[in-house]
Structure prediction request, 372 residues.
Amino acid sequence: MEIIKIGMADLGIAKSPDRLRTTGLGSCVGVVLYDATKKIAGMAHVMLPDSSLAKGSDYNIAKYADTAIPELIKEMVHAGAAVRHLVAKMAGGAQMFSFLSGHDTMRIGPRNVEACKAALQQAGIPIVAEDTGGNCGRTIEMDAETGLLQIRTVNQGVKEV
Amino acid sequence: MTDFNRFGDFQIDVLREIGNIGAAHAATALSQMIQKAVDMKVPQVKIIAFDEIADFVGGAEAIVLTVFLRVEGDCPGNMFFIVDLPSARNLLRQLLGLSESTEEDAPLSEMELSALQEIGNILAGSYLSSLADFTKLNMQPSVPALAIDMAGAILSYGLIELGNSGDFALTIDTAFFEGHEEVEGHFFLIPDPDALETLFTALGVPLDGNY
Prediction:
């Protein structure tokens, strides 16, 4: 078994028995897709909601919800997954600092969550579990064998969805 | 994309000196508060990939206490004051005279959190005001916000603004420690991409190449 690390603004695929892991999700959102029949998992660490905000055309597509999710689906299909079998889970999108909640940048967590949901809905992929919002950082690990997503926080311990 | 690579050694030196001046003032303020000598290391100016941001403070999952201030004005950016939890408890002990018997695992009380937030505010404030005096730029720190969590989750927050213009951040990091290393921590300044030009212009530094 190998643990594949997904960095910030990065995405990747794992097949059973490997796992995908991303650490320190704050306002970023970790989106995982899973095809249970093929035991293929994909994970994206999304940092910002919308690629139209990017300055310049040469940007990292894994950074934005609206571009990372279609790319992740594409790579899953390329790896042998079927779109109709895909289900999604997501975690993150916290508001690490609760002050200044009026400022748009400061609301980035909830905006990332909304954008990921919109992108998944557009692709017709159901969200079967989520642990989003709040004010805590999360580390997540996706098991391509079982499809379980393990979510670890500093204060609330570990849970699996 | 913001091209940080156009900055030469001279510009990096200027930024290092900025870190030096700011952190020296903050270290002095801390030294006065705890009545002990506080030393600092040579500031590190680095152009780093987003993923590496938490490496300075022990990795993305290291649990740290952070006071965050958003800097507005001529030279916008994000300022973090970061200490690990044992250091935070030692600070409280030395400042508030809290008893030694305080359990290491016990969560910090409202009062303790508020004290730490104020310490962070004073230190970050002295960092920024020395910088503002030196550059004659207008810099206004926001109300401080405190969080205790994974370093990666906290610091990535300081990168959101940069995220739309590239995949790298320029950070000015200064580590400080009290003589016996009972308290050690970092000041972390991440200027917004456009702020660097303002900063260099104010100091009469050319924007690219060497002097």
About this structure: The two ends of chain A are 21 Å apart (CA to CA). DSSP finds two helices and ten strands in chain A. The mean pLDDT of chain A is 91. The domain at 3-160 of chain A is CATH 3.30.1330.200 (60s Ribosomal Protein L30; Chain: A;).
